[in-house]
TrEMBL record, chain A:
<keyword id="KW-0472">Membrane</keyword>
<feature type="transmembrane region" description="Helical">
    <location>
        <begin position="207"/>
        <end position="231"/>
    </location>
</feature>
<feature type="transmembrane region" description="Helical">
    <location>
        <begin position="356"/>
        <end position="377"/>
    </location>
</feature>
<feature type="transmembrane region" description="Helical">
    <location>
        <begin position="429"/>
        <end position="448"/>
    </location>
</feature>
<feature type="transmembrane region" description="Helical">
    <location>
        <begin position="389"/>
        <end position="406"/>
    </location>
</feature>
<feature type="transmembrane region" description="Helical">
    <location>
        <begin position="167"/>
        <end position="187"/>
    </location>
</feature>
<keyword id="KW-1133">Transmembrane helix</keyword>
Automatic annotation (TrEMBL), chain B:
<comment type="similarity">
    <text>Belongs to the UPF0065 (bug) family.</text>
</comment>
<dbReference type="InterPro" id="IPR042100">
    <property type="entry name" value="Bug_dom1"/>
</dbReference>
<dbReference type="Pfam" id="PF03401">
    <property type="entry name" value="TctC"/>
</dbReference>
<protein>
    <submittedName>
        <fullName>Recombinase RecA</fullName>
    </submittedName>
</protein>
<feature type="signal peptide">
    <location>
        <begin position="1"/>
        <end position="30"/>
    </location>
</feature>
<keyword id="KW-0732">Signal</keyword>
<dbReference type="InterPro" id="IPR005064">
    <property type="entry name" value="BUG"/>
</dbReference>
Automatic annotation (TrEMBL), chain C:
<feature type="transmembrane region" description="Helical">
    <location>
        <begin position="111"/>
        <end position="134"/>
    </location>
</feature>
<feature type="transmembrane region" description="Helical">
    <location>
        <begin position="72"/>
        <end position="99"/>
    </location>
</feature>
<dbReference type="InterPro" id="IPR009936">
    <property type="entry name" value="DUF1468"/>
</dbReference>
<feature type="transmembrane region" description="Helical">
    <location>
        <begin position="33"/>
        <end position="52"/>
    </location>
</feature>
<keyword id="KW-0472">Membrane</keyword>
<feature type="transmembrane region" description="Helical">
    <location>
        <begin position="6"/>
        <end position="26"/>
    </location>
</feature>
<dbReference type="Pfam" id="PF07331">
    <property type="entry name" value="TctB"/>
</dbReference>
Length: 497, 329, 144
């Protein structure tokens, strides 16, 4: 208790508030630009923090982290150009809403959901971090394998309109996921000697190509591309979701925040698994699952609350065990160590004040981005009134520069453009792009963990069902797969009666 | 092999030609070097241990050299992409880079057909850190020393699982080295990074973790993990209780060394200037203190000594590779 | 071209590609080929399903609007020019030219408006990426 008050006082000094405000604004900008991921945002801030006192340095990094995850939702909704994999699920419903002139409402929902998820996970971090950190250790390769399958189940829902084309896209994604230098045997798979492909098909160039670049082509190519929101129809005034909608989504918000926080704790999982699983679960529990993918506020709420709940979750193993929960917090650890704080239990004893200062500042950063976001909503939606052929080249520029900035490799830019052309024709020919990307993200997690499980268990496939945790997860996967079928059968019978 | 040596000869000739050419032109220019910011290529991602070291070094070097040092991350292919950029950069001293031994000297023969740089295209400048390998088990593991561990492997080889960070990486090479010295076969599992492997070790999913000291020291100091051995010729300051492999009768020495290099053909004056800067930074007690805090053992090796150090490692590993390649083609 | 024909082409092309993936996978050492083989098999099943689906054609499945090939070519050429110029001439010569071309020919803005927007946007990119984030964008002719 005696560190909480000084920590709170640290956060409320003018300098701290200014740092948080700047960090939040920088984070929102970075998050909304395609190619500039949270990882990069935090990494770019590290040199700036060299000369700052540790308290302020951590505040800046924390603010950039949480707000950049939120920032991704803005462009995902308004332009269908998700900047990172965390916002793909947001775009699935957010963009149809924006097309229908309800972009403001979708942004409002995304903001409130992000706030909810973010606050939820920071409170979890504040209150029960040490016991929860054991979750990070309980998950072995077997559990990760099943978790990856859980995430892949989302594809079934996303591609329910065109199951066969969805399956084809997913298979392409899985094959692309195999590309690269295989860590287990050291051999090259499908790289054709390109060292740029040794680490696999780089995810963000593929993602930005399939979503942003193809969207830019969509906006530029038709002469009548005129205005994004169907020929300049009036924006439906509201910038906040109705109270009724919020209440309807409350259960989804809670469920997604729990999923996000737990997945965040797992070092091998990643933000996008959380938002995919939450999105799929929201759809599964919805009474109108057919509206998902066509502009359902609940879908935006699920994805956004989950990906922001990940932020607090990832910090749990980082701060308590010294094991970073994802790539961003790995950079965070670099920042901590530069300031002489070695992550681990000592953070809560030796450096307790600084640690609690960081946690409080995360709470405040969440509130700050929400206030800024709600205020900016009404101005940002105007983007949807700009003629498509004007927006298109600008999106292209951001995509090209953003992918180059990822690892300063011109090869990645060519890849982005190639994926853009592929994405453009996929959409025209009615092949969904989301299954490809989901498979590309989750394929490697599935494969390496499957192979690790096999090496540890010496090729015993029952290993997935003999461990209590992986058995539980397996049952959840079966439920997620079987429920829609059962539901359909029940409705079919009800219709017959 | 014939093609390879011809290629090397050609590259060496080209390097010599550029050295002479640039050397003549650069003689006057080098006097006022540097006149603009210097780019530091890090062949790994931002926030990793190589990157952290580079950024801290750059911070001190800027004070010495009076110019900005801009760290540029060019990750990919386990460092290869960054070294391609380094080797291909203009040899004017405005692009320098970090090289990581032993991987920088093994790619030219393990990836013979595809590698994009030649070992001769990079001129080593100064080694900064030598991070020895460690074999780590969880704190509640029954194995107290290497003999326990080896006995357990001999007893039931399938039950002992050792992690490394990818076939052909320095952790894998260290573990192979140990397996050879102990005359055992180890079951390996590859992890993509130190975070996942540490979680798997502490969670009891794997038996042991082969990694670098700087990655494992925090967990060891916290008492959550125990190092069975450090693969160096003497005990390390950061964990004085951990015996070396040699003390326990296993002739194993393995480490990841991180240092600076320049593209071959940099004018000698510029090279010397950079060498002086490196010496000054490495001798700076504040720099040393920061490295100690990160559990990165400083091991300064300069100029020709560094070249010899890498050459020796190159020859040794190449002989090993030709005898028994660790990646089957 | 109707979607049915396209789907048939896709099924054939990808069916062959997936078969090649499976063949390569089965030839890989150790367990490296397991996953490619599984993914390839999934793909082949999907291709067969797709091919069978085209037999009972669905008339509603036609492209929404005819493809405007000329405009697609223009934008592709612009992007090609952007990338080539970026590495040769430098990012900040390539960007305004690309934006100007796009705004002038595709959006049909007046040339002064196009010029102003492209210069302003380039300046913004310069501020964000070079000044703020210190990304080493290719600088081409501007440096040497």
């Amino acid at each position: 208790m005696d560190v909480l008050l000084p920590a709170l006082a640290n956060v409320l000094t003018p300098l701290a508030l200014l740092t948080l405000l700047l960090g939040t604004m920088a984070g929102m900008t970075i998050g909304s630009l395609p190619g500039l991921s949270s990882t990069m945002g935090v990494a770019l801030c590290i040199p700036i923090t060299f000369n700052m006192p540790p308290d302020l340095a951590l505040m800046l990094l924390g603010a950039v982290y949480v707000s950049s995850v939120y920032g991704g939702s803005v462009t995902a909704i308004l332009l269908r150009t998700p900047g990172t994999d965390a916002s793909i699920a947001t775009a699935l419903d957010g963009y149809p809403l924006a097309e229908a002139g309800r972009g403001g409402e979708a942004l409002g929902m995304a903001t409130l959901a992000s706030l909810f998820g973010g606050l939820f996970s920071v409170v979890v971090l504040l209150v029960i971090a040490p016991p929860l950190s054991t979750v990070a250790l309980a998950f072995g390769p077997q559990e990760y394998t099943v978790l990856a399958i859980f995430g892949l189940v989302t594809i079934v829902g996303v591609a329910s309109d065109r199951p066969i084309k969805g399956m084809l896209a997913a298979a392409v994604g899985l094959v692309l996921a195999c590309v690269g230098l295989d860590n287990f045997t050291g051999i090259q798979r499908f790289t054709f000697g390109n060292s740029e492909l040794f680490d696999g098909v780089p995810l963000l160039p593929a993602l930005i190509g399939l979503f942003s670049v193809s969207q830019a082509f969509n906006l530029c190519v038709p002469t009548a591309g005129g205005v994004l929101t169907g020929q300049g129809q009036k924006l439906k005034g509201r910038n906040l979701p109705l109270w009724r909608d919020l209440k309807r989504c409350l259960r989804t918000l809670l469920r997604s925040s729990v999923i996000g926080s737990v997945v965040g704790i797992l070092p091998g999982a990643g933000t996008s698994i959380a938002s995919f699983i939450s999105y799929n679960e929201a759809r599964r529990h919805s009474s109108t699952p057919e509206r998902f993918g066509k502009g359902e506020l609940e879908g935006v709420a699920a994805s956004e609350s989950a990906n922001n709940a990940v932020t607090g979750g990832t910090l749990i193993p980082t701060l308590t065990l010294g094991i970073p929960g994802n790539a961003v917090t790995a950079v965070f650890v670099g920042g901590l160590t530069i300031h002489g704080m070695i992550p681990g239990p000592s953070l809560f004893t030796q450096h307790a004040e600084t640690t609690y200062t960081l946690i409080f500042s995360l709470l405040l950063a969440n509130v700050l981005f929400a206030v800024l976001g709600l205020w900016l909503c009404r101005y940002l939606v105007v983007v949807t009134k700009v003629p498509g052929a004007v927006l298109g080249p600008m999106i292209l520029v951001f995509s090209v520069i953003g992918t180059y900035a990822l690892r300063n490799e011109i090869f990645d830019v060519w890849l982005t453009v190639a994926f853009g052309v592929v994405g453009f024709f996929m959409e025209r020919w009615r092949y969904p792009a989301a299954p490809l990307v989901i498979a590309l993200i989750l394929g490697p997690i599935l494969e390496v963990n499957f192979r690790r499980s096999m090496q540890i268990s010496h090729w015993d496939l029952t290993t997935f069902f003999t461990r209590p945790l992986s058995l539980t997860l397996s049952l959840l996967v079966v439920a997620a797969l079987a429920y829609p079928i059962w539901n359909q059968w029940r409705r079919h019978r009800a219709a017959l009666d | 092999m014939f093609v390879q040596s011809k290629l090397v000869k050609r590259v060496a000739l080209a390097a010599m030609a550029t050295t002479i050419g640039v050397g003549l032109a650069g003689a006057t220019m080098a006097a006022e070097y540097p006149t603009k910011p210097i780019e530091v290529i890090v062949a790994y991602g931002a926030g990793g241990s190589t990157d952290t070291m580079a950024r801290i070094f750059a911070k001190y070097a800027e004070e010495e050299i009076g110019q900005r040092m801009v760290v540029v991350n060019r990750p990919g292919a386990g460092g290869e992409l960054g070294w391609v950029h380094l080797a291909n950069a203009k040899p004017d001293g405005y692009t320098i880079g970090l090289i990581n031994s032993p991987v920088v000297e093994v790619y030219p023969f393990t990836r013979e057909d595809t590698v994009g740089y030649s070992y001769e295209g990079i001129r080593p400048l100064a080694n900064v850190v030598t991070d020895p390998g460690v074999l780590v088990v969880a704190a509640d593991s029954p194995y107290q020393d290497l003999d326990d561990f080896v006995a357990a492997v001999k007893d039931d080889p399938e039950s002992i699982i050792v992690s490394h960070e990818g076939v052909g990486g320095d952790d894998h090479l260290a573990a192979l080295n140990f397996a050879e010295a102990a005359d055992i076969d180890l079951s390996f599992v590859a992890f993509n990074g130190n975070a996942e492997a540490t979680a798997a070790l502490l969670g009891g999913h794997i038996t042991a973790f082969e990694g670098n000291m700087s990655e494992a020291a925090a967990q060891i100091q916290e008492g959550k993990a125990r190092a069975l051995a450090v693969w160096s010729d003497q005990r390390m300051e950061a964990m004085p209780d951990v015996p070396t492999g040699m003390e326990q009768g296993y002739e194993v020495e393995a480490a990841a060394s991180r240092g600076f290099a320049v593209p071959a053909g940099v004018p000698q004056e510029v090279y010397d200037k950079l060498l002086d800067v490196s010496r000054a930074v490495i001798d700076n007690p504040e720099f040393r203190a920061e490295m100690a805090q990160l559990n990165m053992p400083v091991n300064p090796i300069y100029g020709q000594d560094y070249v010899d150090f890498l050459d020796a490692s190159h020859e040794r590993l190449k002989a090993l590779w030709e005898k028994d390649p660790w990646i089957e083609q | 071209m109707t979607l049915v024909k396209i789907d048939r082409g896709v099924a054939l092309l990808f069916g062959v590609a997936f078969a090649a993936v499976i063949a390569t996978g089965l030839g890989m050492r150790g367990d490296a080929g397991v996953f490619p083989a599984i993914a390839g098999s999934l793909g082949i099943i999907a291709c067969i399903g797709l091919a069978l689906g085209t037999l009972r054609s669905n008339p509603s499945d036609e492209p929404s609007a005819p493809l405007e090939v000329r405009r697609l070519l223009i934008i592709c050429l612009c992007v090609l020019g952007l990338l080539v110029l970026m590495v040769t001439a430098g990012t900040f010569i390539a960007l305004p030219l690309f934006l100007f071309a796009g705004l002038r020919w595709l959006a049909r803005l007046r040339w002064l408006t196009s010029l102003l927007i492209s210069l302003g946007f380039t300046a913004m990119i310069y501020l964000i990426f070079v000044q703020l984030l210190a990304v080493p964008l290719p600088s081409g002719w501007l440096t040497s």
